[in-house]
Amino acid sequence: MPEEDNKIDHFILEYRKTNFDGLPRVKDERCWEIIDNIKGTEYTLSGLKFDSKYMNFRVRACNKAVAGEYSDPVTLETKALNFSLDNSSSHLNLRVEDTCVEWDPTGGKGQESKIKGKENKGRSGTPSPKRTSIGSRPPAVRGSRDRFTGESYTVLGDTAIESGQHYWEVKAQKDCKSYSVGVAYKTLGKFDQLGKTNTSWCIHVNNWLQNTFAAKHNNKVKALDVTVPEKIGVFCDFDGGQLSFYDANSKQLLYSFKTKFTQPVLPGFMVWCGGLSLNTGMQVPSAVRTLQKSENGMTGSASSLNNITQ
Question: What is the model's pTM?
């Protein structure tokens, strides 16, 4: 065989999700995803959704004649923020299911007695083990006595952010009249609205009577002179005190808050006359990481235009 044919021509990378540490198990036989024709010895996977605890990887080298044996599988832990919406504290006019929330004008009628009935059956108040917060702590679930009410059409995520950098995306229904996307401390009151307290930060979209797009915090409002995107990406750097919003498709920066988080925060959402769907468990896109480094390097007036400080 000619010496040229013995040289490695390309690599094949295979990966799959698993909930088991270590080697793949028969009971966890998920299909391998394949990426072929990798020319270099380094490759970056992007756009992954981390909805399992671990991922298996294996590689094989190929020349122009044959493919080699697979390498031993390598297992990596995934630590992305994978959360659902907490329907135990959401406003009664919101219909909440996992990662979707929809306005329901009749929701407050007939549900109150249903909820009380469930509570009277002996609710322990212990968070479900289904979700865990960052750092393997129990989810920060609010009690039903703190259910949002009045004009606070709010629902929070069921998992607290206590450290690290995290990213999720939100898409609104086309006919949604009004909605907000952001984060809040667990102490957000049941009558409080996102962005109107010093314990919450958000961007707000209003399509009712007049169209407005604004950033809100501590009852301060800054109008945003950008087009409302089809899907909003949210980046939270807890340790760095940064909350940024992006066009999830183009990765254009919409707005960025710079603050110092003194308590764990929860993803927060408000919706009126419409609905929102979430995509969680995502890795931080490389484009967002690059923009964050660039933004953090800004000084003077350019930086102040993007910040509302607490």
Answer: 0.70
